[in-house]
Amino acid sequence: MDEYKAKILKVCNDICKNTLMETLEIEFVDVGENYLVAKMPVTSKVHQPDGLLHGGATVALAESVGSAASYVFLDGQKYFVRGIEISANHVKSISEGEVFARATIIHKGRTTQLWDIRITDIDDSLITVCKLTTIALSKT
Which CATH fold topology does 3-138 show? Predict the structure, then answer.
């Protein structure tokens, strides 16, 4: 991994300390020209009562990676990023292993951004598809 990628991933992982992302053990693992990837272990901590991955934990993963992607691909020093709408379609269940969320930009406007977030398992089988809209608010 090149130094630039490693630096971005370190920043993303460091800002997760003492947050929901740390509680859910979300880790940012890859970044490219227009995408960011995070992973989350599927254990009893993120299960619903019948032993499957909870949809709320899945959506928390999606919003975390999409918001972090906005922070990375906008100037996080100049803007606060906030999620303003998220939708999720759960297409497959999973009870163990890891899930990977890949946020890819669909629309990068000055104020709002639209992200496609695909959550897959280790075999790249689709678990959930999310759309996230974020807003960039000037810090000045």
Answer: Thiol Ester Dehydrase; Chain A (3.10.129)
